[in-house]
Amino acid sequence: MMGYESDSQLSRDPAQFTSGSHSLRPHPIQSSQMLQLRHTCQNGAIKSRETQINPGKVIQGPPKALGLLQVLDPGSSTSPPLIVREKESPWDTFKQVFTCKLAGTVIIAVHKSRPSQLEAIRAYSPERADEVLGVFQVTRHQNVLSAKECYKDGDELFVLVDDLPLTLEHLATLHPDQHQVASVIFQILNGLHHLVETGFEHTCLTSSNILLGSDGVVKIAALEYCIQRPLGQSQAPLIKSLAVIMMQLMQSYEMDDGVIGVDDMERWPPYSEAFGFLEATSSARSIETLMKHPFVAKQHRPGELVGLARLAPIATKTFYTYRV
User: Fold this and answer.
1) I want to staple 302 with a disulfide (CB 3.0 to 4.6 A). Which of 1, 98, 185, 216 is the partner?
2) How far apart are the first and last CA of the chain?
3) From residue 75, how far is each of 72, 139, 151, 306 by CA, in Å?
4) What is the mean predicted confidence (pLDDT) over 186-205?
């Protein structure tokens, strides 16, 4: 056999056996040549397979119209840019499941190719589309409703937003205690302060327009009611709205004739921090001033609201429309 010595020759040369092995050692020179040849052939075969298997990137799926993709910079290095898909409908990607009233109408949809993925989608009228898009572009705060992605289909604007299942209306019926009320007000103040600092005023700040997540996070929603305002403008309307929300949290309703106070003085005595904060809303001139009040000055965690957030879907109702 070419490249190997005969058995008789190998038997006379013990050095050609490898210790502990039952295989025969080939001739050194011929073995090296064959290994080199084999290595060259293998490399050629690998390159040939790579050329056949990976000729380039392959895009699979049905043909799709290509829209213009915009990336709007939120102005913060810590926030991801807001993606706006021009001339593209969200219903090419998502399927509507139901709609409900949560700080306006929200559409709950599933991803067509990944049905386990739920998304909350809000639609905005053509008259307000550009203004709402501007608000979402610059307001990126944990206590303000955030946009994940936007679709512009004709004159309509669709926004994928945070999916929060409750409002403060649900919470108010469960009689939160002082710590829980403080957690809510603390988060609202933080969200309002962010809106003011970015040049916006929320003109319809109500319990029904503030969302609550199952993790206890509170977010100011209904951002279509945000209008641009100069920094020096009076914040009295915001503070008055905040006082009404707090009365609803403390006793489920507000006082008549614009009076700021509570009827249940046993549950909310005048010396309590909650009552003191409510009283302070009648004289405070700014959101920033209220943020320094002892009632909310301490760090309040959203986790304080988790128990009530779990109870609310059982104890309350939400208006919805299910699409069959």
Assistant:
1) 216
2) 79
3) 9, 10, 21, 32
4) 97
> pTM score, two decimals?
0.75
Q: Write the pLDDT tens digit of every residue in 222-262.
A: 999 999 988 888 999 999 999 999 999 999 999 998 899 99
Architecture of domain 83-161: 2-Layer Sandwich (3.30)
Burial class (CB in 10 A: 0-12, 13-18, 19+), 259: exposed
Where does the chain have alpha helices with state H?
7-11, 28-53, 129-138, 168-172, 178-197, 236-251, 273-280, 287-290, 294-297, 306-315
% helix / strand / coil in the chain, to the nearest 5?
40, 20, 40
pLDDT of 89: 93
Cβ atoms of 277 and 185 closer than 8 Å: yes
Give 225-234 pLDDT, tens digit per residue.
999 988 888 9
Cα–Cα distance measured from residue 94 to residue 122, given in angstroms and rounded to the nearest whole number: 13
Structure tokens at 87: 């001339």
- Looking from the CA of 202 toward its CB, the CA atoms found within 13 Å total 30
**At 309, is the secondary structure helix, strand, or coil?**
helix
Nearest to 184 by CA among 207, 150, 152: 207
Instruction: Report the CATH number of the 166-316 domain.
Output: 1.10.510.10
Burial of 163 (0-12, 13-18, 19+ CB in 10 A): middle
Residue with tokens 């699979």: 60
For 93, the token pair is 């990607």
* Cα 143 to Cα 220: distance, rounded to the nearest angstrom: 6
Neighbours of 238 (CB within 10 A): 22
Place of tokens 């004739």: 257
Q: Please tell me the distance from the alpha carbon of residue 46 to that of residue 178, in angstroms, as a whole number.
A: 71
The letter for the amino acid at 84 is V
- Enclosing H/E stretch for 152: strand 147-153
- The structural domains of the chain, with segments of one domain joined by +, span 83-161, 166-316
